[in-house]
Amino acid sequence: MMQRYRPLGSELLRQLAAVASIPILVTAIFFIWQLYPQLKTNVANEQQALAGIIVEQSLQYLETAEEQVHFFIDFAVGDSKKPNEHAIEQFVQQSAYFDTIYLLDYFGTIKKISIRNANQNIIEAVYTGMDISRSLLYQDPERLQHNNWSDVFLSVVTGRLSIAYMVPLEDYTLVAELAINRLPQLSQSLSDRGSLVMILDEQAQLIAHPNPDLSQQQINLSNLPFFQGPEQAKVSSNEFTLEGIDYFGTAIKAESPPWYVVVAQDERIFFARLYEILRNWLISMFVIVLLAMVISYRRSRQLSARFQVLTQLARSVARGEYDKTVLKTDIREFRDLSDSLTTMADAIQKRESILQTQEQQLRNTLESAPNVAVQWYDSRGTIGYWNDASEQIFGYTREEAIGKRLNQLIFDPQPTAEFNTRLDKVASHDVKNQEFDLPFHHKSGRDGHIRGAIFSIPSRDGSDLYVCMATDVTKQRLAEGSIRELNAELEQRVDERTQALKRTNDELKETLETLNNTMAQLVQSEKLAALGSLVAGVAHELNTPIGNALMAVSTLNDFTGKIRSDLQAGTIRRSELECFLDDADSASGIANRNLEKASELITSFKQVAVDQSSSQRRRFSLADLTNEILMTLLPQTKKYPIKIHESIPKDIELDSFPGPLGQVISNLVLNAVTHAFEPGQSGTIRIHAQRQETRVHLTIEDTGCGIDETAIGKVFDPFFTTRLGQGGSGLGLHIVHNIVADVLGGQIQVTSTPGQGSCFSIQIPLKSPALDTIDIQSQAN
Amino acid sequence: MKKGSANRAVKRCTLMAWGLILFVYLVGCGESEPYTFGFIGGLSGRVSDLGGPARNGVLLAVEETNRTGGINGRRIEVIIKDDKQDPALARKAFHELLEEEADVILGPTTSAMAMAIVDLANQANILLMGITISTNELTGLDDQFLRGLSSTESYAAKLADYLYYQMGLRRFASVYDQKNKSYAKGWSDDFNRRFQENGGKRTAMIGFASGKPTELIGVAERLLEDAPDVIILATNSVDAALLAKLIRSRDPDVFLATSEWAGTERLIELGGRHVENAIVPQYLDRDSQNQAYRDFRTRFLERFNQEPGFPGLIAYNMTRVIIASLHQNPDPRKLKETILTQKVFPGIQGDLQFDPYGELKTKTYITQIRSGKFVVQAAQ
What is the CATH number of domain B153-282? Predict the structure, then answer.
């Protein structure tokens, strides 16, 4: 878009006009809001005063008329109650006010009448006897009872609009009519001064108007705003239209007669005053503005001239002429500006020389940068600058290169296109700079590679200049090639290794699976071993009572045979028979006791065996279970000099799995027996239980050698054993831990003081949270 | 930057302020040109009982229209002229109204004045809407004169029939006002013809010039000379009242009848007991219970403290006809065509129907004055 420039002069004038319009507006608003109503009020006050005077005058006029009537009555009526006929005639002819006078009787009939300037006889003949009881004059008989002025009515006698003064006499009412065309003369004389004066009766009928014709037309002006509304104010001012003319007027209500006097001013006259003020104001405003504009125009010319000088100064500075013209002025700002321009010229001069130096330095730097080829291009890619490094890298001298394009020197079409694309991008300001990495041909024909960037700098003429800075990366490219090869080899090797690792991993997985299977088998064999030793122990245990019983029975058998042979031989004696019977008693008692013991053992064994093999859930007594277990362990424990103390309250009942719990107790006791004590060492194992709300706390402690600190953390790990190769499988405590945690829903901890013993403490719930039947095998695993 | 925008804001404010002033000025001056209705009527003197209410009827219709927004937004102004029952003044008033660019003229209110200005209206091609004019002399003419009544012939005949057949009167004397000869003489002739056709007999027919009360004694005496059954007064109300007094004070038994002209409130006001029992035909139904009429009468009384009578009603109706026509076609020069094309307009006491010559067919209501009131006897 073209910017349009205005001269300073017209701008100043414009602003002056804008500023001047504000006070003009303000005064206009003031005029409308303040002055106009004020003027109106003034006019209304004047009108009110005038109306007051007119009321006064009218009253005076009517009062004089009244006085005349009363004087006449005093003179003509006297005490006779009926006026002298001749006197009535004389009065009318001489009165300056009244046109006619008549007497009404009680029924509203004219009894006696006299009209000014008329033949009395004919008048009497025409009007006497007329019944005006239905006329407006007579409409309110009340009013006839007092001295009173009537409303305006059309006189039947004169045919003119009249008002009448009515005086009640003894038998008659005297009515003196006054034509209201006398009042308009009053109003007319007052209206000459630019005001309209009207008199209206109580019904708002026009009585007096400067135009006497209108006064005779019985015009009712109740539509004027003075008479609108429920109650008419004594004084009110309003605008109204009458006879097509707009007025502003004031109405005032007189007391008696109750008439309105309206004093109004033609609004054109009223506004003429206003317009005069407005016109004078406008003229003065115009003159002021004009004056201000002339002054400001002259002033702006002077300012303009000074600006011209300063502009010249600035232009010569721009041209590089630094002669110091000084503006002669007494305005500080101009003086300052002039000084500043001079100072600026100095500064520019200084800066220019610095810039020249800097440019030289920069150019030298560019020239002597050994490995960085620097070129300048215009937007079409034509070379404008070619430094020494460019000569070295590309083989072309400055003279050969400048004015040519790169495709004419070093680039094939493909790199040329790429280079130009980048140049265009920079030129279109999409990006600040563009990097490139392109192959080139050295002047000698050798292939090479350059890497660099293109960016734009402003040139002297304002257009853009494109700088290309590049380094020769031919060697790096070669090195990069070999590195890339190495990388590829490395990747292959990693692949191979990964494959090998995967295989190893698979093998390991297989091994682990085998191991797990083996462990399961071990657990099974452990159980079988335990069962085996149990069976061996039980068999051994049974051996004694059954052996004893057998021995007693066989002894008894021997005795019985001997007795029988003695009996057959008849050599039997009484004493011998008694001895036999005693022996038989004793033998059968022995056999009986031993068989009972065996039976007891078998029962215990049976229970344990059932529990351990079936893993059924049931309610049982912890004390009973422990005793049964200990009994089954007796064959194994009694080989050692170790005492087992059991102190479990009888009332602890569990709803749990007796088999697994029994295996736990038996494993822990056997563990203590086999591991806690040195061979031959005596000691004690204490089994204790305590009920704690819904749980039971079972401790199995020994007074053995204790567990090393290093080992205590691992005792529940599978295959951890201190007796490797001595029969320990390393699974006993692991199984215990699994059963307690998984089957019984409890926890197991071990504490130990080396040399003093260990304590396994088990917390299990009285009611196992587990299912009714559990695969102990898997749990153990 | 900031300074610039502040500067612009000041400029914009100033511009807006000047724009506002210009706008107010234009709006103030933008009101459309008002219509000007001229009115000519006898507003002073003895015939002012026609002119006054007629003028007021016009004013009421115009004021009501202006209050409700004028005619399609255009206000109506009324210029009122008093002809004082003087043909020269009527012509002068007409010329003045032309100069003041009246769009239409309502009036005049008496036939004599109508005769004086109808030709002028035809020349100037301006519509003259007569109010209370029923002279036969303007009947059946295709001219610029329209009126709210039909010719006297129809009305006079109705009164003649009523007096002859209903009241059984046979001998009559008639008197007419020579100052409104066009109406009064015409009406009297029409009555005369009909009454005689019916079989009645005329004993006297007297013309006199209104405004000279001294002449009236002689008139009254001559009317009574051949002992008529009924005396027919084709005069204005004031003269009728005076004559009634003079006649009745001489012969209290003779019947009195008037033309519609005298049938205003003033007849009763001035005649008092002397006009009791007089037969007075009326152009309006004074006893109408029609709500529109009663509302109209109330508004009229409130505004002017005066009975509308027939002049007020007819003037109001005619003004409404003109306003309605201008609503249809705003061009006042086409008023006659518009009115005669539409023909039927709503009126206060029923539809108004114009005949092709622009006369309204209206009824006449025979009333009798009883206890100071017009009491309707028959409508024809």
Answer: 3.40.50.2300
